[in-house]
Amino acid sequence: MGGMRSVEFKVIETDPSEYCIVAPDTEIFCDGEPIKREDEERLDEVGYYDVGGVRKQMAQIRELVELPLRHPQLFKSIGVKPPKGILLYGPPGSGKTLIAR
């Protein structure tokens, strides 16, 4: 008689709703390679494309942050110091913290 074994997995996406219940008749589709436990923490990282509706602003912030890091000689040649920080302002719930992450 075959014994039952548990299988651990992390849900990345559900369809159709944001919340779901895994029941005995639930169909689970696995795609891609299994994720190693040590790589699992990276799944929770926030990237530029996780912030929706602010594409233009993200492009400006990205340029402001990445340009001095990629081309420091550009700032040295014209004698300008690169910015040391960015001030994000706006009403609560506008995504400032998400952008900062």
Explain the overall architecture.
- With about 100 residues, the chain is mainly α.
- Helix content is about 30%, strand content about 0%.
- It contains three helices and no strands.
- The protein has helices spanning about 55-70, 70-80, 95-100.
- The mean pLDDT is about 80.
Strand percentage, roughly? under 5%
Termini separation: 51 Å
Give the beta-strand count: 0
Give me the Rg, rounded: 22 Å
The number of helical elements comes to 3
Bulk shape: elongated
Helix-strand string: HHH
**What is the share of helical residues?**
25-40%
Main pleated sheet: none
Protein name: CDC48 domain-containing protein
Keywords: ATP-binding, Nucleotide-binding
GO molecular function, one term: ATP binding
Domain CDC48: 4-35
Topology readout:
Elements: H1 55-70, H2 72-78, H3 96-100
Brief sketch in words of this structure:
This protein is mostly helical. It has a domain at 48-100.
Task: Output the keywords.
101 residues; mainly alpha; 3 helices; P-loop_NTPase
